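Minimal example, chain plus magnesium ion.
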Amino acid sequence: LAKENGKNDFQIFMPFLLLKNLNKIEIEKNLRKAIENDEFVLYYQPVVNLENMEIHSVEALIRWFLAQKGMVSPLEFIPVAEESGLIVRIGEVVIEKALKDLKDWEQRGINDIHMAINLSARQFKTKYFENTVAKLLEKYSVDPFKISFEITETGAVENFDVSLKILGFLCQMGIKFLIDDFGTGYSSLVYLKRLPISGIKIDKSFISELEFSKESRAIVEGIILMAHKLGLKVVAEGIENKKELEILKGIGCDFGQGYLFSKPLPKDEVESLLLQKKILI
Ligand code: C2E
Ligand code: MG
Ligand code: MG
Ligand code: MG
């Protein structure tokens, strides 16, 4: 149909956009309700130290289950939450739940676990974000050294001065910053290094190609070398099999995360792994 309209082929996008907009409004309405009714749940995925195969930290990953419909992927609703600004409140809920669970683990003897929390750019660049974080840390008396925030390259580099100020403040408190999905955005390590970040997470798209592509392997190896030279730790995301693990160990990757070790799990289920500490595969 669009073809028939010749040059006017942008028309093909009209129904798609309309549908998308309708969906957004629906999702937004439901998100507001979800905040009110406290419908969000955190799952946790272990991050493994590849040197000794011990769990170093868990990454908190938000889950939203809709009655009848099942789980809505964060990939679907986080962008809507960002656009509408609801991410600020949702992000606060995430930080609070994560700190509460971390405290809970501490009180039951699991003392040496770190917590990684995803931040959206819009969230950490809102006014008083630092204060919110400081208050919550105090409320749950969590050691800021146990917390790292994951931000994307684009989020870090956009409004660079604002990033620099907020990251600087939180960093001084002892919180660490990691660049998430590294390699998928537009930036360079050299540029990122002007921010106080302590590590990068190589995006899973590179990891899944490791076995088959010499180029991907070269890229990952290069990223690791450069990161180490800059004093950054490296986490590989999305490790799904032993072959990938062996390659990553061979090229000096520090940490790994992926279905090979564990899927993201509800709090109760991840606990048994934390108690066991060592990941057996
Ligand atoms: P992310 O931060 O890069 O998180 C890693 C994603 O990869 C998670 O998807 C995780 O379940 C998935 N994953 C882990 N290991 C494997 C593996 O071996 N294979 C494959 N194929 N996937 C694996 P999830 O939980 O669906 O989250 C998707 C994205 O949503 C996250 O990507 C993050 O960007 C965002 N997100 C999740 N929770 C939050 C949150 O609390 N706040 C914000 N702002 N964003 C969040
Ligand atoms: Mg992440
Ligand atoms: Mg990622
Ligand atoms: Mg991500």
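The chain has twelve helices and ten strands. The mean pLDDT is 91.
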